[in-house]
Design goal:
Elements (H helix, E strand, L loop, with lengths): L40 E9 L2 E9 L2
Antiparallel strand pairs: 1-2
Protein backbone atom coordinates (compact mmCIF):
# COMPACT_ATOMS: atom_id res chain seq x y z
CA UNK A 1 0.00 0.00 0.00
CA UNK A 2 3.04 2.28 0.16
CA UNK A 3 3.17 2.56 -3.62
CA UNK A 4 6.71 1.19 -3.84
CA UNK A 5 7.83 -0.96 -6.74
CA UNK A 6 8.65 -4.44 -5.43
CA UNK A 7 9.82 -6.08 -8.64
CA UNK A 8 9.44 -5.68 -12.39
CA UNK A 9 9.05 -8.72 -14.63
CA UNK A 10 9.84 -7.93 -18.25
CA UNK A 11 8.47 -10.67 -20.48
CA UNK A 12 9.18 -9.02 -23.81
CA UNK A 13 6.97 -9.87 -26.77
CA UNK A 14 4.81 -12.97 -26.30
CA UNK A 15 2.52 -14.42 -28.94
CA UNK A 16 -1.14 -14.76 -27.97
CA UNK A 17 -1.99 -18.04 -26.28
CA UNK A 18 -2.06 -19.96 -23.01
CA UNK A 19 1.25 -20.47 -21.21
CA UNK A 20 1.53 -23.12 -18.52
CA UNK A 21 5.30 -23.31 -17.97
CA UNK A 22 6.94 -20.81 -15.62
CA UNK A 23 9.62 -20.00 -18.17
CA UNK A 24 7.09 -18.50 -20.61
CA UNK A 25 4.24 -17.31 -18.35
CA UNK A 26 4.16 -14.18 -16.21
CA UNK A 27 5.32 -15.84 -12.98
CA UNK A 28 6.36 -14.12 -9.75
CA UNK A 29 8.13 -16.18 -7.11
CA UNK A 30 7.27 -13.81 -4.24
CA UNK A 31 10.70 -12.19 -4.10
CA UNK A 32 11.70 -8.55 -4.41
CA UNK A 33 14.43 -7.09 -6.65
CA UNK A 34 17.11 -8.18 -4.13
CA UNK A 35 15.90 -11.78 -4.10
CA UNK A 36 14.37 -11.55 -0.62
CA UNK A 37 10.93 -13.01 0.06
CA UNK A 38 8.26 -10.33 0.54
CA UNK A 39 6.08 -10.10 3.64
CA UNK A 40 2.49 -11.30 3.80
CA UNK A 41 0.02 -8.68 2.65
CA UNK A 42 -1.87 -7.20 -0.26
CA UNK A 43 0.14 -6.41 -3.38
CA UNK A 44 -0.98 -4.71 -6.59
CA UNK A 45 0.28 -5.76 -10.00
CA UNK A 46 -0.14 -4.16 -13.40
CA UNK A 47 -0.15 -6.17 -16.61
CA UNK A 48 0.73 -4.05 -19.63
CA UNK A 49 0.49 -5.20 -23.25
CA UNK A 50 0.71 -2.52 -25.92
CA UNK A 51 -2.03 0.02 -25.21
CA UNK A 52 -3.75 -2.32 -22.72
CA UNK A 53 -3.04 -2.08 -18.99
CA UNK A 54 -4.89 -3.74 -16.10
CA UNK A 55 -4.14 -3.41 -12.39
CA UNK A 56 -5.33 -6.06 -9.95
CA UNK A 57 -4.50 -7.03 -6.38
CA UNK A 58 -3.01 -10.20 -5.00
CA UNK A 59 -2.86 -11.53 -1.45
CA UNK A 60 0.35 -13.17 -0.20
CA UNK A 61 -0.11 -15.34 2.91
CA UNK A 62 2.64 -17.22 4.66
Amino acid sequence: MKGQLVRRLAMGHQAAGIYKSQSHAAYWDGRNQLGEFVASGVYFYTLTAGEFAATRRMLILK
